[in-house]
Amino acid sequence: MQRMFMRRTGLAVLLMLAATALTFALVSAAPGNVAALIAERAAGPGADGPMIARIAEELGLNDPLPVRYLRWLGAALTGDFGISLRTGKPMSEEFATRIPKTLALLAGGGVLALLLSLVMGLAGAVSNGGVLDRLLHGVALVGASTPNFFVAAMLTIVFSVMLGWVPTFGVAGFTSWLLPWITIALFPGSVLSRVVRVNLQEAMSRPFATTGFAKGLTRRAVLFREALPNILIPYMTTFGAQFTLMMIGAIVVERVFGLNGIGAFFIEAIRFRDFIGMQAVLLLFVVFFVSVNLIVDIAAMLADPRLRRPRRA
Amino acid sequence: MKSWPWAILTPALIFVLIGIFAPLLMTHDPTKQDYSAILSPSSWSHWLGTDYLGRDMYSRIIGGARTSLVAMVVVLLAALIIGVVIGSFAGYIGGRTELVLISIIDIALALPSLIIALALIGVFSGEAWSWMSDYWKMIIALTLAWWANYARMSRAVVVAELQQPYIEAARVMGASHMWIFTRHILPHVLGLVVVYASADAGALVLAIATLSFLGLGVAPPTPEWGQMLVDGMSYIEDNPALVIIPGLALTAVVVSFNLLGEAFALQKVPKAVRGGLLRRKKSARAGEETARAATEAKA
Predict the structure, then answer these.
(1) What's this model's pTM, rounded to 2 decimal places?
(2) Cβ atoms of residues A20 and A282 within 8 Å
(3) Are A247 and A263 in contact (CB under 8 A)?
(4) What is the pLDDT of residues B248-283, one digit of tens each?
(5) Searching chain B, which residue's CA lies closest to the CA of residue A12?
(6) A264 in contact with chain B, both atoms CB, cutoff 8 A
(7) Is 0.90 exceeded by the ipTM?
(8) Of A250, A251, A237, A249, which is closest to residue A295 (Cα–Cα)?
(9) Are both A22 and A164 inside the same structural domain?
(10) Residues A49 and A167 in one domain
(11) Which of A108, A261, B207, B273 is 20 to 30 Å from B95 by CA-CA measure?
């Protein structure tokens, strides 16, 4: 059991190292780029060749790639992610102000997606083939197909332009978080509601459900007491995948609603060729995605003893 | 099950047909600006009104269908070919090469495809890549972000098929590797991958629109729905139709491809893999892997 956890964690760390090495290699693929950008910033467009070469030498950009990667990784592990080429501020400072905003966005969206999916999925299962069930199926299909920037635009049209309840841009207080949360929760909520619905249906056709009926339990009692615990594993796994995908929603939403989080920073870094900023954000993303997957795997192992058994090849 | 294919195929087919015949369906040049008719409402000459540069919205929506269709088909084909080649090669050759390739695939799947595409577009923004147009940067970034799913799936099918007795029989009869692969294994791989790709098309259309919405995909004046939507956001109070129309077009297309995907998901594991599943333990695992890969990728 413990060995399985250790093995899984070790694999996750390896994956993080490999993925960050790959992103580092990719982003630094164009040598001299960063030096030229810094020179341009310091001396305006008049930056000349020798100056660029000197900056490259000072920053150690002429060293071989593995040396640069290890140096960068070592610095990152001590909290030094370099200085953003766009804002001129240390990345650690950018992270300190931006990460809380993105986390608040993801957390609120995650909670909302959880509620939405359970309510929709369970209501569908209770209705079981009725009008409500079919209606919710349609809602989930449309919800999982609507681009999140369109959802954001529609919410803005209805709640800001037509009703004037919330500001169209920026965040001020709890209410202004509502539209961003709803926007990023709609897609995962819809996908997860189908996971709940489909797995409940599958569980209801299993022998233990039949036993429940034979004992004289009502359909609702079988559904909630016998079938519901069975959806835990597929639900958790999909929730983990959807939670990481919500980062994409966050990138879009932060731009539409003017939230200065990590996602908005990432897009700005790409547009302004801020390679140092990009590298730092990609490191953050790799750590985020791999650890969410790890947490989901470990939670699944804790919930289902069968998954703890080491698989033999 | 007898009647679903046409009912479910029709919406996606309409999108494809509109994309193909776009030049015949347009009433105006979608890039022609007309300053005498800026932000005009729906009329006989401009069926869906005009945008902030006086361009005909109807023609831009039709043109956007073609932009999405072409980009989607190019990326999907390229990703599919790369994925099938790498995945099949890994599965067939086995050993250390397979291990290395699987690791690469796993790394590529550690981040969501769209994040990888964004990162690659960032990399391509460097001066060393300035010879490439924004459009091709997007196409190449999406392809490099998209192939890994196909590689994983192809490998799983190949591994499952290799367990089958008929492969051994073919080998005993002296068939070459190339013959066994192209004649016996590749059809199974393509069967699964093509089905998956047709459902994946919606996700790709969405990705293209999202990149363009973020200003990192199809650049103006080429009509594209995501980019039209973000342009319309500035005029959301005067004319919300500029946002709603491209948004609805995009949603309709994605819904129609997702319907396809749902229909395919009902059949879950295709026959090719199911056959192997019942026979041997190892191939059963491969079958599970395929199913998992397919469902995970869909989510």
Answers:
(1) 0.86
(2) yes
(3) yes
(4) 999 999 999 888 887 776 664 444 343 333 333 333
(5) B110
(6) no
(7) no
(8) A237
(9) no
(10) no
(11) B273
